[in-house]
Amino acid sequence: MKGFKMKVSQLGRKNSTDSTSSSKSKESKASAAAAAAAAAPPPPPPNTAKPLPQPAVPGSHLPNTSSHTLPTTNGSSASSASSRASVASSGTDRSPDASAEDRHSGENGGGPLTPPRAVSLATRGLRPAPKDTIPITGKPPRKQRSSRFVVNEKVEIERLPAFNEIPASERPQLFIKKLHQCAVVFDFNDANSELKGKQIKTQTLHEILDYIMTQRGVITEDIYPEVVKMFATNLFRSIPPPVNPTGDAFDPEEDEPVLELAWPHLKIVYEFFLRFVESPDFSTNLAKRYIDQNFVLNLLELFDSEDPRERDFLKTTLHRIYGKFLNLRAPIRRSINNVFFHFIYETERHNGIAELLEILGSIINGFALPLKEEHKTFLMRVLIPLHKVKSLSMYHPQLAYCVVQFLEKDASLAEDVVLGLLKFWPKVNSPKEVMFLSEMEEVLDVIDPAEFQKIQEPLFQQLARCINSQHFQVAERALMYWNNEYIVNLMSDNLSVILPIVFPALYQNSRSHWNRTIHALVYNALKLFMEINPDLFDEVMQQYKQRKIAERDHAVRRYDEWQKVREKARQNCKGKLPEGYVDPEPTPPPPPVEDLDIMDLSIDLNAVSIDAEAPLNELDESGIERVPMADPGMDWTQRFYETYRPIEVSTTRSLHVGRPPTMALLDIRSTKMLNRNDMKRSALSKEQKGGVVETHSHSKYPFRLNFYDRPPVEDITIEEFETCALDRLRVLAEIESSYARNRTFAELSSVIGSICEKYLPLNSNSAITKPLDSERRKDHIGHFVLRLAFCRSEELRRRFVKAETTLFRVRWFTDDHAEREAFLRTRNFDWVLATPEEVQELIPPTSGEPVGRYYKVKWTRVPDLVEKRRVVLKAGMAYVPAAEQVSIVTQEFQSHLEKDLEMTAKALPRLDEDTRIVPILDNLSKGFLAGVSSEWSGATAASGDAITADMIDELAFKHFPACMRNLHMCLRRDKHLKHFGRLQYGLFLKVLGLSIEEALVFWRKSFSKIQDDKFNKEYRYNIRHSYGLEGKRANYAAKSCQQILMSDQPGPGDSHGCPYRHFSADNLQSALLTMYGEHGLTSGDMQEIMSTVKAGHYHVACTRVFEITHARQGVKKGEGVGGGESVTHPNQYAARSRELEKKAEGKDGDGDVLMQGS
């Protein structure tokens, strides 16, 4: 910034001074502005950011600078610039926004000296209306400007030599010089100023970052003060105040944040400091002289930055400091508390609350038991009051996590937490109320039954008020409690207390709420209560009826008494009421609760169970389903069935998971409307039959081929839900893998046939000894579950349709001809059999050959046959030979499935309410993208075939896949592996047959640069833990290809991951030729492999490498690791490779690893 100078003598930079003088015209402008200040609206608060003074302690964080007023871009001080005001022109009315605009336009030559606007004679005499003088507030958000730094004006820095250009003995001094150079701050508000200096500083920052990451022993005692000083100079600053402090709160979902203009330098400074703190050479004892409480306070001030990128780095930085410096932990917690207190009780504005809560969540997770009193006080005086702030949505997930962490540590805090939440429960803020309901459900998930009894009455009183809310999201979220199995169990144990509290709300809601989904959820809750304790349910209904009768009698008596008072007043006035008195309209008493309504409610709940999802049609313009308000005189049963009349719904609407097994099924395709007597007969019939509900039978799936028109409408467990989907997913993923490997349809059919036999068997009707019903039921459920998983994006839908169509085609050719014909007769296809005359006219018969059957369809229905010239076209119709009938049917199947997937995608947002299902669907789609095709289960080797530490080098050379071979090579080269690399490689070796004793020997020899004490303290425990000998003693499995691809992405310096995905193209080719060049892999094979990698089929590329490198053992292209399967697990690759070697040597190789289905 201009007008501010700072000497930096130690770098030998060239300083140029800029003489500034104030002209008379500027003085006149300032005086004119001061004279008009009284008439103008008050200006916004100036940005008076000042450099922090340097403390007189060894741990200072800023260079010595004198206190200056922050200059503006035109050289005047911020205080004088902010005091300028617009000149109010006579006879015109200026809005506050226009005045503010003029106040800030002085930098561009406008502002207070702008001449007054011309005023017409017609409007000169008009006075401003009152509404024109009302200031516009609350419109724009309270946004910040980018920070202004105390910079060095006109400072030119010279490029210093690189580290590799000077001797090693001079590098420490050069490192310090580069740190001094990086302490120069530039003005990024002017994008065109000092470009050379900015570029040199950027390059220098990258150099020192790379230097500290790649070199060891570079962090000496002299480095600590220079690093801290450089960090503080670049980052510690005053956060600018809001441009419009009276505006609305900043909403990160609606408003764009103000990004720091200096971020290109700030980002590298943050990265450098993190690498500095995480370095193995970092000494906490030396650093704590410079990283002290003052440093932490300055760091916490930066959390108010509006730039989310900076807050993310700050979160990581503070977390690392908390973990490294034990002496700063208590001060950090106290300082964060002060930030929260200031936010809750004073400003209610802070941008970094979510990040601070994330840090606290990790801290709380590490609290020792029993909890200290200061920790409990923090929960009740800080975390609970944070719920009352109106900007709760900006940090609520992190806050709820912290609260639940406390309850998992100490269950006795549940009563205080629940009562605290009820204390701050919002009154009229519906979105905030939904957040409270979600958090309360998380609290109840971890509450003990004994603690639940203490808070059940006030809790369910509040829940009843939420159920009665006319805001459908509040009522819906409250009713979702009845879908939580643990909460339902808590209710069932205390039903005598809870049911009388919530029954009136449920009953009134079902009669008067406008949303159909709410009605269905209410019926679900009522039916659950009735099934848990029918006698208590009937008793509560009768009590409710008697209470309503008493309320009506009281209202009638009150009405009669006031009538008597009115008549008495009339008599006192001699039959006349005072003049001007108007008789109010008589208010009739409330209608009584008839026995018929109570009876109908009981019959409805016994007769049917309503799907919690409302129909898709009958939506208003906003997409919300609406029904008229209930007529008090309308019959309950008639209104109920008019609201829930059965209709055609989308293919995923009625998939129920985890519902109570006693709930009946509603046939959504029935179009018959039941009346009251039909309902009673149906309920009586069901009671006589013992409530048996029809389940899937062979009649539901008469054919092996299926267009999947009807969704499953029954109750299934979560395990069955996931198993059916995973088994079908393996088949579909193998189909896609076959396409990537360019297999012919005959080869694909052979591979898919064997895969289906293992995971998705589907026999024909002639196989009477087979469990046809269970096979087809599994096929049916699995298809619809995968619809939910793959309807989320266009890419997933396209790949799913292609794989499903191929599976249908394979089943077509393996089906019986009679069953195919019977299946086609049930479908109403829009194509007919061509007459013999039409066929003879189009296709003259050749010598002696009979004319076959042809089907007549629109040519757009068979584009693939038209492209291959296998049909005859005439008048827009295609005549398809019977031999190509499969193309017509598969095209129909594909079009049908595409439409259904689009409908499912539209309905999916309303199906994501079950937190148990959403993670399963996410993992299914990720597994498909990662290429999961077959299940591989590995067991450790038998004692007679176990491997030792001395064998690993030879095994890695002969049998390891690229991921493990790369880890082994890095381990031998660096004598070390980072955490995720050790975890991935260690579990692989464990499953391969390396015992814990041999594992300790192997890792100790591999880490030859590390002393025994350090190895025993830092690595021995983790190795034993991975074998299930420490901690919770879990037997960890080796990571599959899907887990390697989808989790723990490698960063700089990491060696884990999948080379086919995480290596660059050049590095991958070089690595593969180095690893497998001696096994037959040549540069001529790389084009095929790299094209497969480019298409994203990483497992196919790995499989192709396996085939090439094992061609000497007789493996042919397309065989994969056996049976045409692709590689899906590193241990699968190694096990099959060792098996082939043993077969070549004439040995049995079935003893070490078990492959399912091989």
From TrEMBL:
Bias category Pro residues: which stretches? 40-56
Q: Where are the transmembrane segments?
A: none
What is its cofactor?
A: [4Fe-4S] cluster
Keywords, alphabetical: 4Fe-4S, Cytoplasm, DNA replication, Iron, Iron-sulfur, Metal-binding, Nucleus, Phosphoprotein, Primosome
Q: Where is the composition biased (Polar residues)?
A: 62-75
Q: Which intervals of the chain are annotated as region Disordered? A: 1-148, 1114-1158
Which residue ranges have biased composition labelled Low complexity? 30-39, 76-90
Its GO CC terms?
A: cytoplasm; kinetochore; nucleus; protein phosphatase type 2A complex; spindle pole body
Please note every region of biased composition (Basic and acidic residues).
94-106, 1136-1150
The reply on keyword Phosphoprotein is yes
Record carries keyword Iron:
yes
GO molecular function term, any single one: protein phosphatase regulator activity
Question: Where is the protein localized?
Answer: Cytoplasm; Nucleus
Q: What Pfam families does its record include?
A: B56, DNA_primase_lrg, DNA_primase_lrg_N
Kindly state the subunit structure of this protein. PP2A consists of a common heterodimeric core enzyme, composed of a 36 kDa catalytic subunit (subunit C) and a 65 kDa constant regulatory subunit (PR65 or subunit A), that associates with a variety of regulatory subunits. Proteins that associate with the core dimer include three families of regulatory subunits B (the R2/B/PR55/B55, R3/B''/PR72/PR130/PR59 and R5/B'/B56 families), the 48 kDa variable regulatory subunit, viral proteins, and cell signaling molecules.
Similarity field = Belongs to the phosphatase 2A regulatory subunit B family.
How is this protein named in the record? DNA primase large subunit C-terminal domain-containing protein
The record lists the organism as Trametes cubensis
